[in-house]
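Here is a typical sample entry:
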Amino acid sequence: MFQKTKNIDTAFRYIRLFSVAFLASCVIISLSIAYKSYQLSSQSQNKVFILANGKALEAYAADRKDNIPVEATDHVKMFHHFFFSLDPDDKVIQANITKALYLADNSAKQQYDNLKENGYYSNLISGNISQEISMDSIIINTDVYPFYFRYKGTQKIIRPTTIAIRNLITEGYLRNVSRSDNNSHGFLIEKWKTLENTDINIQNR
């Protein structure tokens, strides 16, 4: 009788010990899952996705100083793209020039006014001339502020009978301004001028 009672008591202790261990394991596992879920949730909240051309691209936060060379290069590239990519359509010209002038100061506006006064844009329209530009290189000096840049590119001027290839070299400075929808990089081109713009080759069509 005493032996049976002792066996029952021992079995109860084993069951109690097992139950406590099982409960402790469940608590530990639950806490681990909750902690991991919190970590993943925090990480996901710090991620930003940008939709570009139908694809979701992940963006990462970084200090502006880490991105200055990349952003400055793209700013200069996009300015030249908008300023020199033209078609024989007044609305296209105005749209591109307007985008370019948001990225630069009055030095670019003066060049635009000079070209307009000399009938450059009206000649594009009347002559059915398109103009394209491709970047060759951009040099940015971020050691001294405002940042000096030099742009080298190739222009293609497409006329009904010929295609002219011209080299283009410009220079200027970049200073920081507030970011906006019209100026996503937060730079403004100053003292912009053309150093060289000469024919390289002319092809008959």
Observations:
- The mean pLDDT is 85.
- The domain at 64-204 is CATH 3.10.450.230 (Nuclear Transport Factor 2; Chain: A,).
- Residues 2-45 form the longest helix (44 residues).
- Strands lie at 48-52, 55-59, 130-141, 147-158, 162-176, 187-204.
